[in-house]
Amino acid sequence: MGSILIKHILLEGQPRNVLIEGKRFKSLDAADGAAAETVLDGSGMALLPGLYNTHTHSAMTLLRGYGDDTSLEQWLDDYIWPVESRLTAGQLQRGYMLATREMARTGTVFFNDMYFDLDTATDVVADSGLRATLGWVMLDGHPLSNRMEVMERIKAWRDPTGGRIQLAMAPHAIYTVARDEIVRMVRFARENGLRIHTHLAETRTEVANCVRDHGMRPVAYLDSLGVLGPDVVLAHCVQVNDAEADLLAERGVTISHCPCSNMKLGSGIFPYERLIKAGCRITLGTDGASSSNNLDLREAMKFAALLAKVGGDPQLLPASQVFDWATRCGAEAFGIDAGTIAEGKLADCLLVDLSDVKMQPCHNLISNFVYSADSSCIAGVLCDGQILYQR
């Protein structure tokens, strides 16, 4: 592995020389003349951690702008599932390639995916330089969702990247996967050291149907099946009450909040105060590009912070906290030794152009990045000590 010296870049309010050796930060205060194979001029830029997208369906870039302005149920039944049933490996490859390029250019260094064709996804992610947790989505009766085939492929799967890719089992939701199938998938995941990734409590309809069919709300239903635990990532969790928030915190699950998708599909407002007060582990996701229309996690940070304040408390979810959700919390949830800029940590980071008009004046770097910036302010992206994007 090579070495990179980023000279004269702003870090914690001071210009520094940051040395990366191999995959990790070697020094945050290197000498001007430190030896490195690659030298980057960081003058006029700031160094920030990369972003960790904890819930998406990446190849749904193919469906960007398709089925807009409909409810979740109509969107799935009338638009998404009919098209997905006809997707080919070649089309999925193009969708994954679009997604990884978009994420690399908007500051995302990791994504937690839930989609089809594990082999194609692995190849594209390996070539992209990004990190990913790949969960092959499972739905009852879906032509691209064959549980036995998936399990056999997962048993034979090997990470070609030396640590950037991990796998997960991804039962789609409690309303699309039968009880026994969920239990089998969770058991398989835990026997093979995999994370579990699913949607939960996204809409009022889901809650009402769960009570009708199982006599309990979605959080309690999954808990009754023995699903909830620290190895579980739950997307959305919009329709959650106080008792459920306490249970999610107690079980140590990771919640992936997807503000743009929730607003666009009319799913409701994430219960920020309730989940924060309960001590839940919260991270940030974009969802797929058909329900949020882009994979820009920086934009999701802004929407999350603003939506939290709609109820009248301007101090709820400040920029520093939502930034933490998108960086440190996301990395920790997936066991990635990154998410902060520190010596010895994996070198996942962004170079942010402070000369951009949207970053000036810079009274508070994190506030500017969350509330004012857009992806054009990102001048460089590094993941695992490699340059993925440089403007």
- Please state the overall shape, judged from the principal axes of the Cα atoms: globular
Strand order of the largest sheet: 6-7-8-9-10-11-12-13
Q: Give the CATH architecture of the largest domain.
A: Alpha-Beta Barrel
The beta-strand count equals 16
Measured by DSSP, the beta-strand proportion falls in 15-25%
> What composes the largest sheet?
8 strands, parallel
Which CATH first-tier class of the largest domain would you pick? Alpha Beta
When the domains are counted, the total is 2
CATH superfamily of the largest domain: Metal-dependent hydrolases
User: What is the fold-level CATH name, i.e. the topology of the largest domain?
Assistant: TIM Barrel
What is the residue-averaged pLDDT? 95
Describe the secondary structure blueprint for this structure.
Elements (H helix, E strand, L loop, with lengths): L2 E9 L2 E8 L2 E4 L10 E4 L3 E5 L1 E6 L15 H13 L4 H17 L2 E8 L2 H11 L2 E8 L8 H10 L8 E7 L7 H13 L3 E6 L3 H11 L3 H7 L7 E5 L5 H10 L2 E4 L1 H6 L7 H7 L2 E4 L12 H12 L10 H15 L15 E5 L11 H8 L5 E6 L2 E5 L1
Parallel strand pairs: 1-4, 6-7, 7-8, 8-9, 9-10, 10-11, 11-12, 12-13
Antiparallel strand pairs: 1-2, 2-3, 5-14, 14-15, 15-16
Helix pairs in contact: 2-3, 11-12, 11-13, 12-13
